Automatic annotation (TrEMBL):
Taxonomic lineage: Bacteria, Bacillati, Bacillota, Clostridia, Lachnospirales
Protein name: DUF2075 domain-containing protein
Gene3D superfamilies the UniProt entry points to: P-loop containing nucleotide triphosphate hydrolases
Pfam families with a match to the protein in the record: SLFN-g3_helicase
Domain GIY-YIG stretches: 36-129
Organism: Anaerostipes hominis (ex Liu et al. 2021)
Length: 581
């Protein structure tokens, strides 16, 4: 038995399949693996500058392929595209494949191809993540060999693994295999959604709390997608389901996911939108079925020029029969997002009364020991600096005495294929305005300036780019864009996203005095965090210290593999250097 994966690429037609069979007449083992055992297959065809794909698995790939071609006369089905001259068929076999194994490989291929920039549309409807099976111990190594074989045949359709895994699309994909904690919550949410819809309930709130890196986005996208699939199974053809997020970078990712999976509401409206758009386009008299809100802590809790209401969450709940909320109060960054304690508590209690409250607790982003996680928590929550632990997992915390040294270290990491998504990020302690004209500036870029060292803020270098590169960058998160290795990101570009290594610059707003970390709003340029907030009783209050503390926590929880730090405040820098020793 051949225990290496076998991958063949042929033209996508029955004649080519017949030729392959004849070619393998004298290769008994390969013929047996491909035609007598379960296999995985990929149909792909060119669409403009990209590809559309269908990934499947079968116990009889010849019969299954013939079935697809029997359906190719229907223009409404994806099989119609198989008549294109550009269509190809990949057949993948392995001597230990069984039903569970092929379902697992099928799901992994779908997940990877979802993160491939060249793939514009996935035509699969069902995900098939598997639990334990025999021999699942071989799955990782065999999948890697399969992917590498596919890459040899088409590097555009099958990019490098590291490139896939660093893409924001891959990380937010609904095709992730969920943790047991996520899976249990997902199943309960779906059950509660359809129970509410069947009983024609309205104003139902499902509330999920989870700190940075606990998997809120993956749970959100996976549950959102599953609701569409379940609705199709239950013949609920008129389902109206929306995904709402108040973050420019994140909404771009979600729109790409919806486009790749072909998710649409029956009324033709886009399924992904910003909260103000959703509120303006829907009424309380005709509520939609389900509204999912990712990063709900970014919703506005007071009016502004573009939003004339008082509470976006309340307005969304009033326009949906079921509202599913992903929330982390430690990521609230501006006064217009600030929640008064009793109001936020009221929403949690509303969810708890209906047994609709859940909490994500497992840290999934930062691949560090519990001791390292505790150190980050001590700094960002308890305002204290404890000794930096030596992490046996390989997670790195390093402290630098100069910003130039930090920049050099991050660029070295970014030069490694597996860590190229490493970037500098900083507290909002230097001036920046995206709306100001060049005439109003004294210099070409808004910059982070420390002594003689300086770097442009995020979104500055793209102004010098050609139109073609700007257009390409629109589909990429800030950190994925190549020029951003020479910029400094802020919470507003990095929130909700991962980095391999985070090079965090703690600006003058973060100090160390009398044995405590101090968050100083007077040294910040984040006006949205510093200004007064009018409370429900009419009083005015400042929350700058708390909001800057949240800002620092967002920055220090971005790195998957490491956290590199430079502190502008001398006492803080010395305290961190002492913590290393």
């Amino acid at each position: 038995m051949n225990l290496k994966p076998i991958v063949y690429k042929i033209d996508d037609d029955l004649n080519s399949l017949q030729i392959l069979q004849e070619k393998l007449e004298n290769k008994i083992l390969e013929k047996e693996v491909l035609f007598d055992y379960p296999t995985v297959y990929i149909h792909d065809w060119k669409k403009g500058e990209g590809y559309e794909v269908y990934v499947g698995e079968s116990n009889n790939v010849i019969q299954r392929t013939k079935q697809h071609f029997d359906q190719s006369g229907d223009k409404s089905k994806w099989q119609y595209q198989l008549k294109k001259k550009t269509s190809s068929l990949y057949i993948i076999g392995y001597g230990h494949f069984n039903k569970s194994f092929t379902l697992d490989i099928e799901n992994r291929l779908m997940h990877y191809m979802m993160g491939a920039e060249s793939v514009k549309r996935m035509h699969n409807k069902r995900t098939n993540p598997q639990n334990r099976y025999y021999p699942d111990c071989e799955a990782n190594a065999i999948f890697r060999k399969i992917w590498n074989n596919l890459r040899k045949k088409d590097e555009v359709l099958f990019p490098a693994e590291s490139e896939i895994k660093d893409s924001a699309l891959f990380k937010a994909s609904p095709l992730h295999k969920l943790t047991q904690e996520q899976e249990e919550i997902k199943e309960k949410i779906i059950e509660k959604v359809f129970t509410a819809l069947d009983k024609e309930k309205q104003g139902q709130l499902i509330f999920i709390d989870g700190e940075a890196g606990t998997g809120k986005t993956v749970l959100n996208s996976s549950t959102f997608y599953e609701v569409f699939l379940k609705a199709e199974e239950r013949k609920k053809d008129d389902l109206q389901c929306y995904l709402i997020v108040n973050h420019d970078e994140q909404i771009t990712v979600y729109k790409q996911i919806a486009e790749k999976l072909g998710l649409k509401n029956k009324d033709g409206k886009e399924v992904v939108c910003k909260p103000t758009s959703f509120i303006n386009n829907h009424s309380m008299d005709e509520p939609v079925d389900v509204a999912f809100i990712d990063e709900a802590h970014l919703l506005l809790t007071q009016g502004k020029q573009s939003y004339q209401g008082k509470n976006q969450l309340e307005d969304i709940i009033n326009r949906a029969r079921v509202t599913v909320v992903m929330f982390d109060e430690n990521q609230i960054l501006t006064t217009e997002q600030y929640w008064e304690e009793q109001i936020l508590k009221g929403y949690r209690e509303q969810a708890k009364e209906s047994d609709n409250y859940f909490e994500l607790t497992k840290q999934l982003r930062v691949t560090a020991s519990d001791e390292t996680i505790s150190w980050i928590d001590d700094f960002t929550k308890k305002k204290r600096i404890s000794d930096i632990p030596k992490d046996k997992t390989g997670y790195e915390i390093r402290v630098f005495s100069q910003p130039s040294e930090l920049e050099k270290a991050i660029k070295e990491k970014a030069g490694e294929q597996e860590h190229k998504l490493s970037r500098l990020i900083a507290t909002y302690d230097w001036e920046y305005s995206k709306n100001s004209s060049m005439e109003k500036r004294m210099k070409k870029y808004w910059e982070v300036l420390i002594g003689n060292w300086h770097k442009p803020w995020n979104r500055e270098l793209e102004k010098d780019m050609e139109r073609k590169q700007k257009r390409k960058n629109k589909t990429l998160s800030w950190a994925e864009q190549p020029q951003t290795i020479d910029e400094v990101g802020s919470t507003f570009t990095i929130q909700g996203f991962d980095l391999n290594y985070a090079g965090v610059i703690l600006g003058p707003s973060v100090k160390y005095r009398d044995g405590k970390v101090v968050f100083d709003p007077s040294a910040s340029f984040n006006e949205k965090a510093k200004r007064n907030r009018t409370l429900s009783d009419g009083t005015m209050k400042k929350f700058g210290e708390t909001l800057i503390q949240h800002e620092v926590r967002v920055l220090m929880t971005r790195g998957v593999s490491g956290l590199y730090i430079y502190a502008c405040d001398e006492e803080l820098r010395k305290a961190l250097e002492e913590a290393v020793r």
